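Quick one: sequence plus fe (ii) ion SMILES, need structure tokens.
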Amino acid sequence: MGILTRQVHSDNLHYPLQQFNLPGATISLWQDWLSAQQASILLAQLQLQLPWTQDSILMFGKTVKIPRKQVWMGEAHCQYRYSATTFTPQPWHPSVQALAQRLSEFLGQPFNCVLLNLYADGQQHMGWHADNERELGHDPAIASVSLGVTRRFELKHRSAAWQLALDLTPGSLLLMAGGCQQHWLHRLPKQSRVSGCRLNLTFRYIKNMA
Ligand SMILES: O=C(O)CCC(=O)C(=O)O
Ligand SMILES: [Fe+2]
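Reply:
Sure thing.
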């Protein structure tokens, strides 16, 4: 348990970076990647304008509703398979596309699809998982932008007792890279006392095989 190696760098004054060099993963966190104003405008826009659905998944042979709402979005070829279901992407919302573009420039790597999650309150959550679908390729870099209330985000190593907990504040950018999806799991736990909603965007890249 406990926090592992922690290094704090500052690439430039506008975007201070915290980097965690974990065994088999590199986690980078930029707290105020979006300004408070940009984050709140984007939250209001996306909450209202996207076709949010509370999807069902198959768990131990039963269909259960997931404890949050989602939208899968991006380039048309970016199919996403999740618990025996294939999701076809929604076309880009212009603000989300602009964010993907800005992220690609900032991080120097392409992003062409995104899973958006809307957690109405602290009861809504996402369980332990890794984003290791084959279509994401080997050791994908996944960039996560948070809006709305601050929530805890946890990582744990698959085979050793190492854990890391971070608070994801509105406007923060988290990058999961290295072998993170191969060696670690992550989740957004319930926080019963948190009221207010959070919207998270996890940007990914899926190659066009056509
Ligand atoms: O809401 C979060 O911060 C986590 C989202 C996540 O892990 C995912 O979309 O795969
Ligand atoms: Fe994830």
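The chain has a mean pLDDT of 92. Residues 25-118+125-190+197-204 form a domain with the Jelly Rolls fold (CATH 2.60.120.590).
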